[in-house]
Amino acid sequence: MFKRYISYYTATAVVVSNMIGTGVFTSLGFQVMGIHSGFALMVLWLIGGIASLLGALCYGELGAALPRSGGEYNYLSKIYHPAVGFLSGWVSATVGFAAPVAAASMAFAEYFKKGTDMHPILLAGRDFSSALLATSIILLVSGVHFLKVHIGSRFQNIFTSVSIVTILFIIVNGLFAGHTGDANFSPSPSAFHDILSSSFAISFFFVSFAYSGWNAAAYIAGEMNNVQENLPKALLRGTLFVTLLYILLNFVFLYTTPIAGMAGKKEVGFIAATWIFGTLGGKIMAVIIAVKLISTISSMTLAGPRIISVMGEDLSVFKMLSVKNRHNVPAIAILTQSCIALLFVFTASFDQVITFIGFTLNLFTFLTVLGLMILRIREPDLPRPFKTPGYPFTPLVFLGISLWLIYFGISDKPKESLAAIAIVLTGLIIYYFGKPKQSLGNTKQP
């Protein structure tokens, strides 16, 4: 039996780092284009946090009852059919983790360039500096996690601490910097008009992306110490902590920075830091934010390959992906995810990456939480060390929000939604072509 190196602290760090990434430092610029009320924007981020907490409560029960690495891949294989579990793993492997790694690395490159005034690197008349920076950080982080599991865990813990300190530093200084923004935080009639507008619905799409990652610890359950107790705690406390940080950070952005200065801009963290700390201080904070984004890349490099590795254990066509090195690290899976992330870096824009992942990830979290209710009915005697508080209202509210997002994705962004569905159908073809083992979805955890 191998030793489990991932502690409760590391699992919580994975949740925090997966959530705190590119979304919170880019979303507000899109939101203020249609919403000008500070109150409405705070409500927007609060609803996103509530939805994530409800989901974390549901995943806490599933993770404690079915404690194996793989997240939705593990749950959906057992609750529905191995094919459904495979599709969630396929989406996570091709989109769910690799695409956000690419997005975070691209954001890292932009913040680093703004902070250092880096000169363009021209090849054939094109500036490849961003792509080269993004590639370098992906390879560096992948190399660290290619080593022993506990080395990757320590690396994750250190950079998560840097991430938290950075955000707290911005929040504290922003609160004392003075009210130089122009957002109105009172619950006025115009605020409620914004809440009921189509812009609010559109903005919730970006908030949903910013909060994605609340379920990250479920993907590494098989390597956690005392998983049945620590997994629910890591999911809940990590999600609650990030929710509080998000609300405070976005309040500071709006409190210190004029809305017009952020509208349509991705680098809202740099813009707000310039208002808080001045030009030089803004550049310094841009570099610090870039370093902070390393924790996001690291957490997804820690969690994502575990899904790919479990798929390799269960599906013969992907057997090579289950290969681990002598330190029990899923080496081939890490290499595979990194290559997919690099493909996104060189072929897709930042906006395309964000838009593409939203529909697919929300679809499978919807199926997973629905599966919680199915499992309660089908296997009432299954040992459940942790039970979802407020059941059945907790999963029902989450399902309602998720269903609304799925409907919104199909109606407002049909091209992206159809592309996501195409990815899912491709996975279904591969599943049946791969001749799955009889044990698929029932493999015992190590």
Tell me what the structure shows:
This protein has 446 residues and is mainly α. It has a single domain (8-433), classed as Amino acid/polyamine transporter I. It is 72% helix and 1% strand. It is built from 17 helices and two strands. It has helices at 8-19, 27-31, 38-65, 72-79, 82-96, 98-116, 129-145, 149-176, 189-195, 198-211, 227-256, 259-262, 268-314, 331-347, 350-378, 393-412, 414-433; strands at 122-123, 126-127. The protein has a two-stranded antiparallel sheet. A hairpin with a 2-residue loop joins strand 1 (122-123) and strand 2 (126-127). Helix 15 (350-378) runs antiparallel to helix 16. The termini are close together.
Shape summary: globular
Individual helix count: 17
Distance between the termini: 7 Å
CATH superfamily: Amino acid/polyamine transporter I
- Main sheet record: 2 strands, antiparallel
Calculate the mean pLDDT score and round it. Answer: 82
Strand order of the largest sheet: 1-2
Label this structure with key terms.
single chain, 17 helices, mainly alpha, 446 residues, Amino acid/polyamine transporter I, two-stranded antiparallel sheet, 72% helix
Would you summarize the structure shown here?
By secondary structure, the protein is an all-alpha fold. The chain has 17 helices and 2 strands. It has one domain: Amino acid/polyamine transporter I.
